[in-house]
Amino acid sequence: MSPSYVHFAAPPFPYFLECNHTVYQPGEQHPNRSHIGLFDLIIVEQGCLFIGEEHNQWEVAAGHTLLLLPDRYHYSVKSCEELTSFIWIHFHTLADWSNSDGEPVYINRETHFRQFLTHPYTIRIPQFGPLPDPFKRSGQAEKLLQLSTGRRSSAVWEQQRIFEEMLRMMDLAQHDTSESHAVEIAERTETYIRNHYAEPLSNASLADALHFHYNYLARCMKRVYGLTPMEYLTDYRLEQAKLLLLKTEMPIAAIAERIGFESTAYFSRRFTQQIGISPLRFRKRYSR
């Protein structure tokens, strides 16, 4: 069975709901459930769980995690053969998510922007795999359980912080050496674009500034963000244009110049193509 990954758009980040601890004696098994409407992350501490989801089946041994999806049928493959204990964490998300094998799946950036007013970062975690060592050693899963027994007002922020730290570790743990380098180069390229988007940028100027051939920069950006540097530049410029249209009374021509477009007509055409309405109509939509 090829590795399966779950991809979450963020922000907003997935949010913690509840957690608990379960122990099965030999001969007991996980219940069958269907379309429970939330994510169920299982962290096995001792023994082994035998669980299936649709056509997939796993043997989840101690030190491993399994993420059951909210819209699938989950069932017990067979009973536990030894004493088995695990922590389960229920969580959900308001943003888009997807499940796929192998390569990352990129969330639709424009759809996400229209809904949440920001472009997404894609969190990528394995549906099944070992719990990252740093989180395992930290004892944070056990702290989640302890917090569940205290006052809700004092626990809710700390539970969300611990949960997000766990997702962060699981996300970062997916990068092998070559992919880590690609992520580093893509993030350096993105940072440069964000800091210099108003300047005349080209394939050649990016390559000179970042000391890599443009084709390599494009491969890294495409792999990590699903966009080439020039596509990302246009997206970011238009994102800044929206903010200026909403927050200032600057003329359209001045906005076009401020964000790096040489031609007002070209800016208006690209804005209309990508956003669906002209810059002027976009401003009027949110004006009294």
Question: Your description of this structure?
Answer:
The chain is of the alpha+beta class and 288 residues long. It folds into two domains: 4-172, Regulatory protein AraC (Jelly Rolls); 178-285, Arc Repressor Mutant, subunit A (Orthogonal Bundle), CATH 1.10.10.60. It is 45% helix and 25% strand. The chain is built from eleven helices and twelve strands. Strands 2-9-4-7-12 form a five-stranded antiparallel sheet, covered by helices on one side. The protein has a four-stranded antiparallel sheet with strand order 3-8-5-6, with no helix packed on it. Helix 5 (177-196) packs across helix 7 and helix 5 crosses helix 8 (229-247). The protein is elongated, with a radius of gyration of 23 Å.
Descriptive key words:
single chain, 288 residues, Jelly Rolls, 2 domains, 5-stranded antiparallel beta sheet, 4-stranded antiparallel beta sheet, 12 strands
Radius of gyration: 23 Å
The oligomerization state is single chain
How would you name the CATH homologous superfamily of the largest domain? Regulatory protein AraC
Summarize the biggest pleated sheet. Answer: 5 strands, antiparallel
Structural class computed from helices and strand pairing: alpha+beta
Listing every helix as H and every strand as E from the N terminus to the C terminus, the arrangement reads: EEEEEEEEEEHEEHHHHHHHHHH
Overall shape: elongated
How helix-rich are the residues, as a percent range?
40-55%
Number of individual domains: 2
